[in-house]
Amino acid sequence: MAFLLLLVLIAVVLGIIGVAAEGLGYLLIIGIAILVTALALIAVRWSRRTGRRPIR
């Protein structure tokens, strides 16, 4: 889980740098791609975890 949070943090930092620095728009694109990947990984882990509950 720490890896996924690190990915989200990196995506936010790259996005901020990409918006703030002129001519570095590609960092914004990379940040968005990393954020989407991290959110997809979180969704996959979350869906796997909900299936393991025992039926009562």
**Global geometry:** rod-shaped
Q: In total, how many domains does the architecture comprise?
A: 1
- Indicate the low-confidence ranges by residue numbers: none
Largest beta sheet, briefly? Answer: none
Please tally the β strands and state the result.
0
| Radius of gyration (Å) | 15 Å
> Percent of residues in helical segments?
over 70%
Q: What structural class results from the helix and strand content?
A: mainly alpha
Task: Summarize the helix and strand pattern as letters.
Answer: HH
Please give the count of helices: 2
Give the overall average pLDDT. 82
In whole angstroms, the N-to-C terminal distance is 28 Å
Strand content: under 5%
Keywords: Membrane, Transmembrane, Transmembrane helix
Organism: Streptomyces paradoxus
Protein name: Nitrogen fixation-related uncharacterized protein
How would you describe what is shown here?
- With 56 residues, this protein is mainly alpha-helical.
- It has one domain.
- It has 2 helices and no strands.
- The protein is rod-shaped, with a radius of gyration of 15 Å.
- The two termini are 28 Å apart.
- The mean pLDDT is 82.
Compact overview of the structure:
This is Nitrogen fixation-related uncharacterized protein. This protein is mostly helical.
Q: What characteristics describe this protein?
A:
single chain, 56 residues, mainly alpha, 80% helix, transmembrane, membrane, Nitrogen fixation-related uncharacterized protein, transmembrane helix
Topology:
Layout: H1 2-20, H2 25-50
Helix pairs in contact: 1-2
